Amino acid sequence: MSGPAAHIVENLARRVDTLLPKARRRLIAIAGGPGSGKSTLAEDLVGKLGPTAALVPMDGFHLDNRLLDARGVRPRKGAPQTFDAAGFVHMMRRLTSEDEVVFPVFDRAQDIAIAGARVVGPDTETVVVEGNYLLLQQAPWSELHQLWDLSVILDVPEETLTCRLIQRWRDYGLDLEQAEARARLNDLPNALLVARSSIKADVIL
Length: 205
What we know:
Low-confidence stretches: none
Order of helices and strands: HEHEHHEEEEHHE
Strand order of the largest sheet: 2-5-1-6-7
Shape: globular
Radius of gyration: 17 Å
Number of strands: 7
Structural class: alpha/beta
Distance between the termini: 17 Å
CATH topology: Rossmann fold
């Protein structure tokens, strides 16, 4: 990590270090649309903050494909209604008060969420949470806003997102036509929703 990206992470880490947590831990929200770079930023920030920081991705709360099929929404996987949003909000509240919190993660290669895969322990002082809908105004996502000690959103031009998303699906083995369809029909609408329906973040990148 070097150049402007390193400067951004260093500035964020300094700001986090000055924060007094509202509750048991500092909760830092890194939000943005698909392909915005939020996962990379969150990972780099946790690395900069050191061993008392932990990363918790929102993606572990994807609903299972069987449930999405039963509801007829699998083609929209990744949209707000395809997550266990209430479960995610509940876990964020637990992070503010409980010493140990076990949480699920998403295995993108298998396209499934894996329960009980990671843990935030009592020595964790800062949790960096990354996901699309952390600042969304609609319920129940809106219940998260009061929990964040610092919120960050990545504002990336639509053209850049489109290129990144198409390449992401190509990297997962889709041909160009399939990759463009996945990016334009699902990922981009989700990204536009994040851009248009999120509250203003403390930091906009």
